[in-house]
Structure formats: structure tokens, C-alpha cells
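Quick entry, no commentary yet.
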Amino acid sequence: MDSPTEPKPAVYVETTIISYLAARPSRDVIILANQELTRIWWERETQRYRVLISPRVIEEARQGDPRFAARRLELLAELEALESDPAVETLAEEIRSALHIPEKAALDAYHLAFAVHYVVDYLVTWNCKHLANARNLRLLADYTVSRGLWLPIVCTPAEMVGEVAED
């Protein structure tokens, strides 16, 4: 339990987390399991953290089916949004280049840049193609360490859920 004087660790919630929370249950058993782990993490664990998003998360959440976009935006409205900063823009482009993230997935680099720039403890995501990916995490570590920058822990909700008790 956190003491009243100790600040809570910060967690940056990337758009896939909100999307999994707002989506109808998937027919794909793996995605369905991930949706359930996300729900469990959200309901049982988030109170332990200072939960952060960025304007880029809001931008992504607005896209797609209007019904689900509205639900995503409703979930995001309760969270603390980090400020845009020109340094984040520059950092995102450098990270995108260092991790070889394609231009069409540039927003993924922005999520990393916000977490690095604002010294966020964790970046939680289901994006395993560009974010929670061992090869890219190695490249991110090399990049941040070589520049003396913060290295957040990038992980999925499954890695942050404590013991999953039966409901």
C-alpha cells in the first residue's frame, strides 16, 4: 500500500488499452483473454498508479466507429493528460528512427516519447508490434541509455496484474 507521502508510480496508458476496455468482447479467444486481463488490471490495479495519457491517445481514440469512440473518450475523460511539448515532437522522431518504426505508425513513437520525456514509470500497451516488442525494447534501451534519458518499463496489462483471483 502506498503511503500518503509517497507519490504513486506513473503509468502511461496507450490507446490499445482504452480500445480493449471499450470494445465488445472479441470472438478471437486470445484477444478476448487480453480484453479480460485489461479489465481486471483496470478495475483492480489502476488505483495504485497515477494514470496518464497524452493528446495523441485522445487523437487515436476519436477514430473509428462513433459508438466505440464515444466510449473510449468517456474512459479517457477521467484521466490526466500530459501536455504537448516541442521536445516530445523531436524525441518522437528520434525514437521512430532509432526503432525503425514506419511513418504510418509514427504515433507509436509519440507514446514512447511522452513516457520518456515525462519520466513515466510504465507504458502499458497491447501494441506488441512496435511497443511491447523485445527487439524494439532493446533498441529503445540502447537509444535512451546512450543519451542519458529515462527508460520506462513498457509492458502489457498481463505483466502488471498481480495474482488473478477468481471473481
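second:
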Amino acid sequence: MNGLKACPECQVPDYITSEHLWLDNGDIVQKRNQAARLVFFESENIDPLFRNIQEIIGVPIEHMVINSVRRAVRIYVSLIVTEDTKEAIRRKEMDPIPIALEMMKISKIMGCGGEEFVDYRYERDDDDYYIVTQHEPFSVPLVAGTTAGAVEAILGGDRGVTCEQISPEVYKMTITPSPHPEELKQRMQMDIYRHRAGDIELDRCAVCGGPQALAGYRWYLDRGICLNRTTRRRMVMMSPQVLDVIFSELREELGDAVDEAVVEAQRRFTRSGFYSIDDVGSEADFRTMLALRGLGNLKEIKIRKKGLQMRLENAALPLMIVGMMQGAFDALLGLESTVEWELSDQNTLEIEVSHA
């Protein structure tokens, strides 16, 4: 697999730069399917975000997170694996494991952690199973949902997943037949990304053509981990739709207050010190940082003692960005703030943070 090779200049895996494009409006897309948007961001943010949301709303959400991801991944994998392949596997004319192993390689390159195939049974009855071991998963519920969704897409039928921690950072995940409520099958909607031109020009590696700033990250492909060389923060490349679908499903179950809960959860995590205003640096540096992560095209940011204003075109994960900026402002001044935001139909995010 070409992704296991790296550029001799910037040391970025070939798969990252050959299969993805960083466009002029602060987004990342798959080269072969430019309707599929991705983000490249700090994965250590994800599970604390879920825990904070759960604490704020007072309702367990892990099962909702897993089910949302499972359904989203089932849709995605169903589109990229041909019907002929799926039919051949279901007729037991083709072994599904080579496909699974290839997906595991890609998952490692994307920073999702290490995954090892253990065993499977496929007789199309209730005793079927598919078992993997996950090493250092970037997010336990997201990896669990992803694994179950991929199995559903390829083998067909509804599946459930159980997670057993067998040692620190190692989990055994078992996928078995399990029916899902009919209303869940009807509700899932996936928005299609549509490109809008921007004005961002990232410096490029002279050898592979990927963003030059990616040289600031190191991939440990044997572990499925990518780290920022300076901050040592762990990174992951994934679809923002995965998190958007989770927030949408939580909203369906729990109401519109979920949006405020997501913002507040992200604010609490950011204020704990993971992110800071120092990460912003100059406006130009922050613009590059957001574009490298596929989060959008920064058009304006103003930070003063009395407040913060920001306008971001083509915003991805807007609720998380709102909470991040509010939390970073609170940490800077040691004060509580209020925040207002608006997301336009064109996906332009405007944020205003001010003293409470």
C-alpha cells in the first residue's frame, strides 16, 4: 500500500497527500470523491467532549454516539464497496477479510489507532460474530460504531457491538447480529458537501505537493497514531459529518438545547488548558492552522479585553469552534463570558464572545 511509504522531504505518508486535497476555502476533501469533506484535528478533544455533554444534559449518551456513527459509516461504506463485491461476500464466494485488512491499514494512516483482526463467523444466523482488537483507539465509542457500521455495510443486516477493555488502551470489540428500532432506520440524513471558492493558498512541499505545514506532524504507522511534533497532541483525520450526525441525533432525541450543551462542553474542555489564545498567534498563522485542519477560511478575528469577534467561511464543526473560541477567551482573562453565534446558509460562522 502506497500509504505505508512517506515523502522523503516532509515525511508525510503518501496516502495522506495522494488521496486528499487541501482546497482554497479551508477544507480537505477526498481526491476521488470531492463531495466527501474531512478534518484533521486533535482527537484527544473527542471523548472529553462527549463526557462533558453527558454531564451537562444529565443523560447517558454513549449508546446514541455509537448508534449514530454506526449508521453513518454503514451508509458511507455501502457507497464505496461495490454491490457486486458485497453480493459475492454474502454468497460466500469471496472472503471479506482482505477488504477488512485494507480498511485497517487506512484507519492506521488516518490516526485512528491500531486494529487487529481476531476471528469471524458468517453463516447468516444469530450466532455470527466479527471480533477485532483495538489498540490505542482515538475514541472508543467512535471506533466501536465505525467497526459495527462497516460490518453491517459489507455483510448486511443490523449489528450491535460490545467493548471489553482487556488492558490499558486495548479493547476487544465483538460485532454480533442485533436488530435496531425502525425509526432509527428512517431518520438518518447525510448532507452532501458542496465546494465554494475561497482565497487560501497554503505553502506546499516541493516533493509531494501536500501542505508544507504537515511536516510539523509525525505518523507512527505501526501504532496508528499521528502526533504534533511540537505540542505532542494526537491528531486524527476523519469526516466532520460523523460528529455532525451525532449532534443531529442527540438533537432529535433531546431537543434543541443540545447545541448549547455542545458549545458549553467544548468551552469547559478548552478552558481546562488544552487549547489557548496563544495557539492563535497572528491572524495569518491562525488562518493557516484552521485551513490545514480543514475547519474553514478565516476572514476576520479580533481579540480584545472586552471581547472576541470572529468570522469563518466554509466552517466545519461550527459548534465545537464556538466553544473552543469562548473557552480560550475565558482562559486568557480568567473570566466568565457569554457567546453568541450565527451560521448562515452558506456555512459562514460568526462568533461574538463578551464578558458576562
